[in-house]
Amino acid sequence: QVQVVESGGGLVQAGGSLRLSCAASGSFLNINDVGWYRQAPGKQRELVAVITGGARTNYADSVKGRFTISRDNAKNTVYLQMNSLQPEDTGAYYCNTRVWLSSSIKDYWGQGTQVTVSS
Q: pLDDT tens for residues 65-74?
């Protein structure tokens, strides 16, 4: 059983910062790729940033230069540092964690954390 928990969301004014955390726990060999997604009301879920098992990163154009994804393998945790937040960054943020099990690889989603940016 693998659990993924996001935290760190909240209400912030435009121009502010938040740091989200995505912590994985349970029975797995290691964590491969982890992606942060967000979903605004009435919109489809979109990929915001991804970090590979080798710590390579990729970002959506809308967040490049403002968001930074990083990982701490010792803590099985991935972070999303969000700076210069804008109202359009508002939404529920989810992480998708790909883990190696004993004989397979599987994706797990967390329950999400809400980010609200006021103008």
A: 999 999 999 9
